[in-house]
Amino acid sequence: MSDPTSAMTSSGGAVVTGEAEVSSSSRSTFLWRLASFALAFGLWELVGRIEISLAFPPASAVMRAFFEMTASGEFFASYADSLPPLLVGLFITIVGGVSIGVAVGLARTAEWFFVPVLVIFQTAPVSAIIPLLTYVYGIDDRSKIVAIVILGLPLVALNSYKGIQATSPSLLAMARSFMTSRLDTIRLVILPSASEMIFAGLRLGVSGAFIGIVLAELLITPTGIGDLITYNRSIARYDKMFAAIVSILALAAVTLGLMQSLETRLFRTEKRT
Amino acid sequence: MSVATANPTAAAGAGEAAEPILRVRDVGVVYSGSTVALDGADLDVPEGQLTALLGPSGCGKTTLLKIIAGLLEPSSGSVTVRGREIEGPGPDRALVFQDFALLPWATVLDNVAFGLRARGVARKEREETAQHYINEVGLGGFEARYPHELSGGMRQRAGLARALAVNADVLLMDEPFSAVDEQMRRKLQEDLLDLLKIENKTVVFVTHSIEEAVYLADQVAILSRRPGRVAKIIRPDLDRSGDVDAIRRLPSYVELVDEIWASLKHYVE
Ligand SMILES: Nc1ncnc2c1ncn2[C@@H]1O[C@H](COP(=O)(O)OP(=O)(O)O)[C@@H](O)[C@H]1O
Ligand SMILES: [Mg+2]
Questions:
Q1: Which domains are assigned to chain B?
Q2: Which of A127-131, A266-270, B102-106, B218-222 has the weakest average pLDDT?
Q3: How far apart (Å, rounded) are the C-alpha atoms in residues A218 and A225?
Q4: Whole-structure pTM over 0.90, yes or no?
């Protein structure tokens, strides 16, 4: 009892999850996802073979078209047009959105101005305005970038803002009681606490950005991957049209997956309750 | 056992209380214009002793502790530590939170080292210090765990280790054991008394449990219902020289619990 190094004898208390459980559960979610993909493709194949409509080819035909277009360089040419504005737009959406959201959440001085504007952009049918961008920027890459940013940035900014606002008052009081500097409080308490919401916003924002580039290319500047979709539809090559859609979906999925692993790396989300 | 009036100078008399390290003078708090949470609260906290703040819920215990911690500015009155008026949180005081306030994304080690990190202590040194207090509160072996992997009792041990790690003279604890079950609470109370035999700390301990106050405290300050003030100071003077679990069987312990209940009863009715 009087051993000075362990005055409080360690007493019971359940220790929940172990490492093994965590990794086995993530493996099983991976299997479930695979199963879900297989099921979706199976259904697609089935429905496609029934030939309800020529405009709905089976999955296998789309896959064949996909490899064909990869080999022929059609994808390469389209993505050479789409990727530069997409990357610039994503960069602005991510960096700008997080910066604005975090800054407004922390400073709270411009809150009254930014928040309603962001909410309007988030809820308005922005795709209806996209054709109007032509009048401002013409049919060049700037229209695409603006379309991406309009669709993506408000989501990122609003969620980042909400994440910052949702920091537990109790953790803030704790930080203050230990005389934590403002910078350390932001670095060690507020940002890690908001990270989940920020990344949720980033996922939404990135999805919005992909919708933005496709909409811009469908509605204003017939180039890139949007044009690939429109062109193949106009010549009734629906297998190729769907292959082009699948390619952009795959790119979006890969981007979101990369972000997920970045999040886990940075903030060990798997360890949270 | 002795019962003194609310007059702090009288309470400090008779040489039984050590020199107060912390003085609360005529503190009043008005929340958002209308709620008077405290009105004319006076308290002397003797150095090296445990003072319990006891009172019905809503009487202003947390408010008073926050003021002592420097997290809340009183509308009137003052708090001094070693004769100097406090201006916000200071290195002489460390808080233990009712809801633990642990960072869910940080390990026990990082949580316990948090206060030292905020003070700019280098990594190696702060981790050594944190490890020392982790062992002392009985959490040895759990330093790499995350809060959600621990029971409530263990989480509060981490919260206590974090407060001990910054080596403040005064520990401020706000109903620290109220979020754990009864058996665990008793164990934590006993372990706290054992720990205080090693660590020479002044403790202000908020509780709504009469038993807890009498069991732990050298001095019990009873707060009256809102607007709260210190209505009565009681010094249990129980024999704590022996085993910590013997205290609950002392006749004077049982008597005192009854006596305090009698004087608190009319607040509840
Ligand atoms: N931030 C606040 N704003 C307004 N009223 C508050 C606030 N915090 C506490 N109060 C009120 O002040 C009184 C005392 O609260 P508190 O100090 O938390 O009591 P206790 O800890 O003794 O239960 C209560 O009536 C409570 O409703
Ligand atoms: Mg309280």
A1: 2-92+173-267 (3.40.50.300), 106-167 (no CATH)
A2: A266-270
A3: 9
A4: no
